[in-house]
Amino acid sequence: MNRRDLDFILYEVENVEALCQTERYQHCDRATFDAALDTAHQLAHSHFHQYNAKGDRHPPQYCQETDTLTLLPEHVAAHRAYSDAGFLTTSMDAEVGGSQMPVAVSGAVGLHFSSANAGFSAHFALNVGAAKILQHHGTDEQRAHVLPKLLSGEWCGTMCLSETHAGSSLTDIRTTAHPQPDGTYKIRGNKMWITAAENNFGGTIAHMGISLFLVPKHALSFSEEGVSLGDRPASSSAWAGATGGATGHLVGEPNQGLHCMFIMMNELRFQVGLGGVGPALAGYLYSLQYARQRTQGRSPLCRDPSTPMVPIIEHSDVKRMLLLQKAYVEGALGLCMYTAGVIDALATTADAAARSDKLLLLELLTPVVKAWPSEWCLEANKWAMQVLGGYGYTQDFPLEQLYRDARPNMIYEGTSGALDLLGRKASMGGGAALKLLGAAVAEDVAAARAAGGAPLAEAADSLEAAMQRLQETTATLLGAAAGGEVEVGLSNSHAYLTMTGHTAVAWQWLRQGTAARRGLLRLEAEGGDASADDEAFYRGKLHTMQWFTRQELSKTEGMAQLLCSLDDTNVSMRGNWF
Hints:
This protein has 578 residues and is mostly helical. The protein has a domain at 434-569. The chain contains 21 helices and eight strands. Strands 3-6-7-8-5-4 form a six-stranded mixed sheet. Helix 1 (3-13) crosses helix 18 (493-526) and helix 10 (257-293) runs parallel beside helix 12 (352-387). It comes from Emiliania huxleyi (strain CCMP1516). This is Acyl-CoA dehydrogenase.
């Protein structure tokens, strides 16, 4: 974990300390935040990182006869240590026993664990998501009986949506709920790809499935039957429907389950994006350390074989691979933390109009923050492996596992998010969400220009042009859809998602570059007390901003050209031509 970078984004870019002046977070200060981050760092190293490879090579063992799944003792201990440290309650409201910290700080805490052990740490977000559903939509009995158990780690949560025949097409699910005289329901059907569907942590599992039911793994005092795992030898698949059907308890109003579930789904979309950053950050730091230590080859200007070999970090193509990782990972982290800041603003803003604007902006950012880090941080992992060459694909180093553990993030919570962004979010409020994004970008462009310096001026000009392209491209695509060319307008939605994501990440790099420029000016003012490490850190930020602007943001020109041409080759391709 690069704590210097995390502190920079939290305190110098996002200024989370300002939240301590609000009523919601007045019980917090920077010492509170730093203590949580320090504890997370220690716990992530001692209980998650050290057993990451062991857990990968010794997967959970499922026994179909007893319907039990056994994880390593180290996993059980890690779950208990995480729960006992109170990290399940970090972002929860104080009224339900939570620490009520800003989402940005809670996300930074979680980043330590996803960097240390991405595969195992992913299930904690499900507890929090299930707890938030019950807090907002559960009955008094559910809040009293189940919510404390989820937040203590005694129980675990899941989200049961997909079915084998339907995937993410939730309108086609077949699971049924039959009302019973005692007010419960019999749930019959099959669910697939359920993360953390079974474990041996000691308590039961609270399965949450539309529309909307709490279906316990084990019988509660007021229920009859639970949920059976089925025949998949992993904790990623569950089915509801033992002999006569599992017992479900209605959460919220009937037939409003998807609406209630969006609390959990949007929470997890943010967590998936942040979860994509974790293993990519670890991969970047591993490959950076390796590049500094590994000697191989010489400068192209030196052909004398008797001279010492140089560290590979001196080779321009290795610098390219490291710059790419740094740009993707730290840019994606900035996007996640900015989005967390929007969530925190929603929780601390009383003005109705301001809240409406923040909510619209969050709706637009959510599919981007889920999808862009999932895809492009995986790309960063790919180049981390490449820096190590042959070593990168061996178990001598953790890079190949980091890549595998990061790959599911592109599948979690909607396989791409592209149709959601273009088909729904971009048109929300008559295009108001995109206008709000444009206004936020314009504000930061102005701040960058005011900060001064040629790199910032170049990046600000490029971002301003890219934002204009994005708005014009969106208008063209939505116009085509409104004119009846719906399928053609949506056929290149992934390119639109990439274009939007690249523009958003370039925006975050401009914000980081502006903060770095201010940091350098402060160091200059301090004179002899200036830190050489701090100066290198800030210059690295400005240089990486420049790299992303020139080498990645520039690609949005080609994306805009493709999208505005309304290219129909995806649509017109016939199935029997493949």
